[in-house]
Specification:
Layout: E1 3-5, H1 13-19, H2 25-39, E2 45-49, H3 55-62, E3 67-72, H4 75-87, E4 93-96, E5 108-113, H5 124-136, E6 138-149, H6 151-157, E7 163-166, E8 171-180, E9 185-195, E10 202-213, H7 217-225, E11 229-236, E12 249-256
Parallel strand pairs: 1-10, 2-3, 2-5, 3-4, 5-6
Antiparallel strand pairs: 6-12, 7-8, 8-9, 9-10, 11-12
Helix pairs in contact: 2-3
Length: 257
């Protein structure tokens, strides 16, 4: 049986929640809420880019103080998130959006991009393109909040991410993770097998390869300086303390300059 290489977050969509099951989405949402309350406590409208299956959006919705639009480039990921939110009777708006080509006719108080989605942008000019697109949906008092991971993070977690498993829907997967420091590229390779109900026969095999550019703090700051956005804060991990060159995950807060 041949193995198909799929566009990222298509074949991965049905196993995404399984491979992310150890992530504390509620804690992540609380951190984002803390940033908003620190810098724009009057904010109401929130646009999340690259939301995945929408876990942070759903925890923010539970705070009952935001109007949330959750977007992603993957229709498969959105379908899963929408079905969960509809079952819970949540009032989240879901839209398929490419964050490098945002075509929305509304401006938002807060724009989010989390889970190191920015690390998937491999070229400087495309990071600047993201900033330009985000600026189109911001007003003068809006904030753009995004996170990214650094070499310190990849050097620590690369081998820890190697894993395998099977979902309740009989989808078997294996993940191989490695970091290439000379290129500052982190690679995650997923081999995915869709099994029959008895878990004996492989019905389909697919593969996804995820390549992420791993940024230094100064690299992102330099790109912000080249944009029409302005740095408000850069936080270390999930705390409201200043990030440093040693930080593993950094959350940036930008505003219109």
């Amino acid at each position: 049986m041949s193995q198909k290489t799929a566009r990222i977050y298509t074949s991965l969509a049905p196993i995404y929640n399984e491979i992310m099951k150890d992530v504390d989405y509620e804690d992540w949402a609380d951190f984002i809420d803390a940033i908003i309350q620190e810098h724009r406590p009057e904010a109401v409208s929130v646009l999340e880019l690259a939301c995945g299956t929408g876990d942070v959006a759903m925890f923010l919705e539970e705070l009952e103080c935001y109007d949330i639009t959750a977007t992603d480039y993957s229709s498969q990921m959105l379908e899963i998130g929408r079905s969960i939110a509809d079952f819970r009777k949540m009032g989240i708006t879901w839209k398929e959006v490419d964050f490098l080509n945002i075509d929305l006719d509304q401006q938002y108080d807060i724009v989010l991009s989390l889970f190191d989605s920015v690390n998937y942008i491999l070229k400087d000019e495309d990071v600047l393109r993201l900033f330009e697109n985000v600026e189109k949906v911001m007003h003068e008092n809006s904030l753009f909040i995004f996170d990214f991971t650094t070499p310190a993070h990849s050097e620590y977690v690369a081998s820890l991410l190697n894993d395998e498993g099977i979902t309740p829907d009989n989808i078997r997967f294996e993940r191989r993770s490695f970091y290439i420091p000379t290129e500052k590229i982190h690679v995650n390779e997923f081999d995915i097998e869709f099994l029959d109900k008895d878990k004996q026969t492989v019905l389909k095999r697919e593969r996804e390869v995820h390549r992420q550019r791993i940024f230094e703090l100064d690299e992102i700051k330099n790109l912000v300086d080249r944009s029409n956005l302005e740095l408000v804060a850069a936080y270390d991990d999930f705390d409201l303390v200043d990030a440093t060159k040693k930080s593993e995950r950094i959350t940036m807060v930008l505003k219109c300059s």
